[in-house]
Design brief:
single chain, 3-stranded antiparallel sheet, 11 helices, globular
Length: 338
């Protein structure tokens, strides 16, 4: 039996807003209609939606939210539309407008960096309010990039005197000693995402000067041992590959006036059977005063919309063995213990 049909019209109120919402060659509107399985007609500066009742209801909410974003000068693309659809389906479309409020940082070229998802906003707010923040989530959620943005912002406003970036040098089967060159050359491939983010925020010339005078330090995690890091913004990236011992060592390096952000993806652990220090730390430190644990999800992915679908496919595949195992245990009467 066919579902109840519905028609709704959204008024963009201006040609400029309409153009932003539609996108080049109507690509934004076409993406929205494909996602929801509805049809749309442009009538002057209004957009009329037709289709199944619930799909049109969601589409109308999304379009109204996009019009509001367009009125605030925000760019609209497929990833943002996909995210708006997710929020609208959950009845949280009013949260979309809050994303344009406040700038995280400004790049060397004058581009304003703003949070693109509710999860990102909660993460940035947590960094502002807490001394230690764990940002855990899949690739593409902006964990590292936003942490670097916050570090540069804190440095420019003289809240800290130094930025320290570190990560475990753990890769598939290769150790630093087997790579050619001096220490800097050896660690460069591991720390490239951090370099790229810093250079975008500061500009190549300023970045080089700050590196030269030691105001920015980039080093492998092993070189943090025995130090006290005061008046610094410290970022530990790829923390899922830090052992429990390394994580404890790192967290206890923090001195007066410092702020620490730990980022990682617990689905990408390369520790050959050892327990991840990130997994352990988020369990035992969650709820400790001054520490916040922010868990980003596939909904917070701000890369191509396909990345979100890829992550969900992998998550669904990982759930299958768990369900199969539960089913097997139920069939055998749960005779075997864990």
């Amino acid at each position: 039996m066919a579902g109840v049909k519905r028609k709704e019209t959204v008024d963009t109120k201006s040609v400029d807003r309409l153009a932003k919402v539609l996108g080049a060659f109507d690509e934004n509107l076409n993406f929205l209609t494909r996602e929801l399985g509805i049809v749309a007609y442009v009538e002057g500066v209004k957009i009329r939606l037709e289709g199944e009742d619930e799909a049109v209801r969601v589409g109308s909410k999304v379009l109204n939210a996009l019009v509001e974003l367009a009125s605030q000068g925000e760019e609209i693309d497929e990833s943002r539309i996909a995210y708006c659809v997710e929020l609208a389906k959950e009845g949280r479309e009013e949260e979309i407008a809050t994303l344009s409020a406040g700038t995280v940082a400004i790049t060397a070229r004058g581009k304003q960096i703003k949070c693109k998802t509710v999860g990102q906003k909660a993460y940035v707010d947590a960094i502002r309010k807490n001394t230690v923040v764990f940002g855990v989530g899949p690739a593409g959620t902006g964990k590292t990039y936003l942490a670097v943005c916050m570090a540069v912002s804190a440095f420019k406003s003289k809240q800290v005197e130094k930025i320290i970036l570190t990560r475990p040098a753990v890769e598939a089967g290769e150790k630093l000693g087997f790579l050619p060159g001096d220490l800097q050359t050896k660690v460069d491939p591991y720390l490239r995402p951090l370099y790229d983010a810093l250079q975008e925020m500061l500009g190549l010339e300023t970045y080089a000067k700050l590196m030269e005078r030691g105001a920015i330090e980039v080093a492998p995690l092993a070189y943090m041992r025995g130090r006290t890091l005061s008046n610094a913004f410290i970022i530990l990236d790829e923390a899922q590959n830090a052992t429990r011992e390394q994580m404890k060592m790192f967290l206890t390096r923090m001195g007066e006036g410092s702020k620490t952000v730990v980022t990682g993806d617990v689905t990408q652990i390369d520790l050959d059977g050892k327990q991840s220090g990130l997994v352990h730390a988020t369990k035992i430190l969650d709820g400790v005063e001054g520490i916040a644990v922010c868990k980003l999800t596939a909904k917070d992915v701000v890369r191509h919309p396909l990345v979100m679908r890829i992550i969900r496919a992998y998550e669904a595949d990982e759930e299958k063995p768990k369900k199969d195992k539960k089913s097997e245990t139920a069939q055998t009467g749960g005779e075997k213990g864990e």
